[in-house]
Amino acid sequence: MRRIVAGIALGLCVLCPRPAFAWGEVGHRVVGRIAASQLTQAARARVAKILGVANTKAAVADALSDAAEWPDAVARTKYKKTVDWHFIDLGVKPNASKDNTLWASSDTAFARIIKYAGTIKARMPDELEPGSDLEFVAHLVGDIHQPLHDTTDQDRGGNCLYVNFVLDNEDESPKTKFHAAWDRSIIEDRLGTNDVIIAKQLLRERKSQIAAAKSAAAATLTDVAGSVRAWIDEAHALAVTQLYEKLVPAVPKLETAPVAADCHDAAPVFKTAVWMIDQTPTDRAFDLIESQLVKAGARLAALLNVIAQ
Prior knowledge:
Elements: E1 4-8, H1 24-37, H2 41-51, H3 57-78, E2 90-91, H4 96-104, H5 109-121, H6 132-144, E3 151-152, E4 161-163, E5 176-177, H7 178-191, H8 195-205, H9 207-220, H10 224-243, H11 269-272, E6 274-277, H12 282-307
Parallel strand pairs: 2-3
Antiparallel strand pairs: 1-4, 1-6, 4-5
Helix pairs in contact: 1-3, 1-6, 1-7, 1-8, 1-12, 2-3, 2-12, 3-6, 5-6, 5-10, 5-12, 6-12, 7-12, 9-12
C-alpha cells in the first residue's frame, strides 16, 4: 500500500475569502456541459436566451460551460462581495446554534442558489449584470457538490491541510492542499484538462447515474430550498465520513469557528500535527469526485428544467 502524508499548515476562516476554487475551471465546465445535455427543450431555449446564444445543443453546452466558470474567472475580482457566496462551512462536529447561523446567512452558496433560482423563475432583473443570476446558479450548484465547500474542520475547508496523493503513473504528487487536490489536481491527473472530452466520457460511462440523479432531483424540486439543503447535507456527510475520517491518526472533530485569514488563531492541533494515511485514498477519491461531478450536472439540469422554462 502507498503511504500518503498529510501535513497541517494553518486553519479555517468561515467568513474569509478562500484561495482555492471548487472543482477548478475543468470541473465547473464539465458540470455545465453535463447539465446542458439534460435540459428540456423549453429550459434550453430559456438558457440560450439568457446567455445570448443560439438555441442549439452545442451552443448552449458551450455557453453553460462558460457560465459555470464565470463566477470564479470574473466575478471574484469584479464583484468582491461575491467571494463568500461559494461555500457554507458547516463544522465536522455539529453545533446547531453555529451551523444554523450559517443556514440563515444571506451570503452562502445555499442562500445564493435559492435567491437566484427564484429570480430566474420570476424573470426578474439580474443582481450584478445580465446573465449573472444564471451564471451563479450554474457555478454554485457545482460548488456545493465539492464536499469541502460544505464542511470545515477548522482547516478552512481543507485549504490548510496538505496531502500527497498517488498520481496516475503511481508516482507521488507534490505537497498539495487537501482542498486543491479535490478541486483540480486529482481530476486533471486522471482525466486531463479537456472539459469537452471529459464530459462526453462521463455522460457515456455514468449514463444511468445521471438519469437517476436527475429523476430523483426532479421529484423533489417543488421545494427548491429543501432540495438544495439536502444536496449540501449529503456532500457534508461525505466530507465527514469519506474525507476527514480516512485520515490516520484520527483528526479531531471540530465545530465551525471564525479564524483569521492568516490562521494565527486556528485550532492548535492544526499547527503541529501530521496525518498519515496508510492506504491510498486516491482511487476512492477519484470515483467519488466523478460521482459528485455527474450529480452536480444532473441536479443542475433538473433545477434549470424547473426554473428556466
